[in-house]
Structure of Homoserine kinase:
Amino acid sequence: MQIKVPASSANLGPGFDSIGMAVSLYLTLDVLEPSDEWVIDHDFDDLPHDQSNMIIDTALKIKADLPPRHLKMQSAIPVAHGLGSSSSAIVAGIELANVLGKLQLSNDEKVAIACEIEGHPDNVAPAILGGLVIGTNVNGHFDAIQAPLLPYALAAYVPAYNLKTADARAALPTSLTLKQATHGSAIANVLVAGLFANRYDLVGELMEADEFHEQPRAKLVPELAKIREVGHEAGALATYLSGAGPTVMTIIDKQGIPRFKQLLLQAGLSDPLLEIEPDTEGVQVID
Ligand SMILES: Nc1ncnc2c1ncn2[C@@H]1O[C@H](COP(=O)(O)OP(=O)(O)OP(=O)(O)O)[C@@H](O)[C@H]1O
Ligand SMILES: N[C@@H](CCO)C(=O)O
């Protein structure tokens, strides 16, 4: 049996901690034979192989008496790069507990558990449900709603350096004035309206008008402004900081990507550019 979880790109500009999109980079978890102890094979130098691994730890948080298994994890999701690697690991762990423990969790239950662990829904909810998801917690419970998918391809510029989410969050101000918060949320509200109304003439501009997190993080990811400028030149819909960064995501027509890539190289931006697309399935279990 294999569990397959997509990566996710959070925020989409002003949707800080509430909007995210599943994308076509995947973590796969092969559930192999029973074992005396939990063991997980993978090629990541910095991730544990025992039950302290986030995937197993998550599964055991949900069902502590799961019988140990030999697991094999492969992942194309760069760790600590703003593509939701930790959320994909959490979602894999939830699904592992679900299938081994025969829990028959609904999608809503999986989203609630994942949000409880991660703290916000913008990566975990799309990794579970697929597509573009908008969610939050209110009155002690999490709600997540799927929005229409953007009819565009994606180009993820992935700088070599890591940026831990905790460090990128530490760069944010601890409070905003009422005026700042009101305007920031008004931009996000109109963005959401634009997404549901397929008003891409507005969506691109609003996605690039975040007032919550991109400016304070720009010093940590100096490539953002230049990539956005190149995106405009290449006719992209919008460029935003993916999650906590350092990946910078550009939403663009597939045919426009070769020119975008060429313009980036001309501007001295030569880190890998991953040509991906939105994932529509979310987590899957393959027998
Ligand atoms: N495949 C994995 N298996 C086990 N643990 C993982 C895996 N991927 C990530 N992690 C854990 O998640 C941590 C990285 O989480 P972090 O929130 O900093 O980055 P991210 O999830 O990649 O980025 P973002 O939340 O901005 O999209 C790693 O240090 C590791 O502890
Ligand atoms: N919304 C989160 C995503 C990363 O967990 C952030 O930008 O910090």
